[in-house]
């Protein structure tokens, strides 16, 4: 355990400062090239730089290369390659408008390095009830895990700071769960995700200076999913991600097809005169977590963000409880 | 949803875990995996239906969507 302290500290410092230092010049670069989008939740016509995925992936790759130099584990390579492929898929989607099916199908391909590098164990562990051995079925779980985590983080990226802030809470909950389960090496591999998200949150929080874009959101989500697989804590990871999973579930079950937000004609929320968010009465509009939160009364973007963070903290707490429950068997 | 995941885990471990087919030689492994996959897909569909019903109940009662 003590021999892991130096790689852990160095990789976390590199992860945080790579993003912290590269994001301001990236913002300037993107603004100069007119790579900006309108912030639709602001009264004024504010244009925000996008995508911030470039600084996010730089932080992830730099920190994981350092960890690989110390530990030389296939799991690190699997996490790195899967995350990079997810970033590349998102970057293509940031540059060109692609159909709703593109990302799920492409993310399935991004999950394959985990399989080819053999960085998984085909036992699925549940709190209180033990493990189930599902060698063939587990391959499908690996594919679906990356698709689900990538897309859920992407789908919750609708307000300033929410995706990165949510990821800070979920990823640190995941790291704590891994430490509780004494899976120290994977816990250390997971730490840079939290520090990368934290550094990016500094620029993404309300009022945003940069948006992560699909490249940033998919990279964060896919790395989270890859860590869940290589760390054998798939169920705990799903619990920590519950608010985002609920958001995707509500959306899909109300729209009943895989579709991009921009393709929808009916919007789930609209703005009041003082630019607070309020739920629309349109029955054709998709049900989302934000629509659910503002259903009883209109709230500001900041208030909705804090409610989502409180939900994330509650889910993170449940994930940690679940990790503690792994030690007990009925 | 957390409770549903825990209960789902119980069903998976109790129902899915012990499933094993024998007597078909080399095909035992594939048949067992296929049956496990079938049961797992059924459980996931059941889980989604329960969640959908719960969602509809909450939305109808509270928000009249």
Q: Your description of this structure?
A:
The complex is a heterodimer of chains A (330) and B (65). With 330 residues, chain A is mainly alpha-helical. Chain A has one domain. Chain A has a two-stranded antiparallel ribbon with strand order 1-2. In chain A, strands 3-4 form a two-stranded antiparallel ribbon. A two-stranded antiparallel sheet of chain A has the order 5-6. In chain A, strand 1 and strand 2 form a beta hairpin. The radius of gyration of chain A is 19 Å and the shape is globular. The model of chain A has no long low-confidence stretch (mean pLDDT 91). Chain B has 65 residues and is mostly helical. Chain B has one domain. In chain B, helix 1 runs antiparallel to helix 2. The longest helix of chain B is centred in the C-terminal third of the chain and has 36 residues. At the A-B interface, strand 4, helix 6, helix 10 and helix 11 of A face helix 1 and helix 2 of B.
The coarse overall form of chain B would be elongated
- Using DSSP, what is the number of strands of chain A? 6
Tell me the β content of chain A.
5-15%
- Average pLDDT figure of chain B: 78
Strand/helix succession of chain B: HH
Distance between the termini of chain A: 30 Å
Number of helices of chain B: 2
Write the layout of secondary structure elements.
The complex is a heterodimer of chains A (330) and B (65).
Chain A: H1 5-32, E1 36-38, E2 47-49, H2 53-71, H3 74-95, H4 102-110, H5 112-116, E3 123-126, E4 130-133, H6 135-155, H7 162-180, H8 184-204, H9 213-230, H10 234-240, H11 242-255, E5 269-271, E6 277-279, H12 289-293, H13 301-325
Antiparallel strand pairs in A: 1-2, 3-4, 5-6
Helix pairs in contact in A: 1-2, 1-8, 2-3, 2-8, 2-9, 3-4, 3-9, 4-6, 6-9, 6-11, 7-8, 7-9, 7-13, 8-9, 9-10, 10-13
Chain B: H1 2-16, H2 28-63
């Amino acid at each position: 355990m003590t021999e892991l302290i130096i790689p852990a500290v160095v990789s976390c410092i590199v992860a945080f400062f790579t993003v912290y230092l590269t994001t301001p010049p990236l913002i300037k670069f993107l603004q100069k090239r007119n790579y900006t989008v309108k912030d639709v939740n602001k009264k004024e016509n504010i244009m925000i730089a996008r995508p911030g995925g470039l600084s996010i992936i730089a932080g992830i790759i730099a920190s994981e290369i350092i960890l690989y130099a110390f530990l030389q584990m296939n799991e690190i390579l699997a996490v790195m390659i899967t995350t990079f492929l997810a970033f590349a898929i998102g970057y293509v989607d940031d540059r060109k408008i692609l159909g709703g099916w593109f990302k799920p199908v492409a993310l399935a391909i991004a999950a394959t390095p985990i399989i080819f590098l053999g960085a998984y164990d085909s036992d699925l562990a549940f709190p209180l009830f033990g493990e189930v051995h599902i060698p063939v079925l587990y391959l499908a779980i690996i594919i679906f895990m990356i698709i689900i985590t990538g897309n859920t983080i992407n789908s919750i990226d609708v307000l300033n700071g929410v995706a990165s802030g949510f990821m800070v809470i979920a990823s640190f909950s995941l790291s704590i769960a891994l430490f509780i389960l004494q899976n120290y090496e994977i816990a250390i591999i997971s730490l840079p995700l939290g520090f990368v998200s934290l550094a990016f949150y500094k620029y993404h929080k309300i009022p945003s200076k940069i948006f992560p874009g699909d490249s940033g959101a998919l990279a964060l989500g896919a790395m989270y999913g890859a860590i869940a697989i290589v760390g054998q804590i798939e169920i705990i990871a799903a619990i920590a991600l519950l608010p985002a999973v609920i958001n995707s579930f509500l959306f899909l079950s109300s729209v009943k097809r895989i579709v991009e937000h921009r393709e929808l004609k009916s919007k789930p929320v609209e703005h009041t005169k003082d630019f607070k968010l309020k739920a629309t009465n349109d029955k054709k509009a998709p049900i989302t977590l934000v629509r659910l939160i503002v259903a009883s009364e209109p709230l500001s973007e900041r208030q909705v963000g804090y409610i989502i963070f409180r939900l994330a903290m509650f889910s993170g707490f449940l994930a940690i409880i679940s990790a503690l429950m792994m030690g007990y068997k009925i | 949803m957390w409770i549903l995941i825990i209960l789902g885990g119980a069903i998976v471990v109790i129902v899915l875990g012990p499933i094993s087919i024998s007597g078909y030689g080399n095909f035992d492994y594939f048949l067992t995996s296929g049956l496990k996959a079938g049961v797992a897909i059924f459980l996931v569909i059941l889980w989604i239906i329960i969640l959908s019903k719960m969602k509809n109940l909450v939305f109808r009662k509270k928000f009249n969507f």
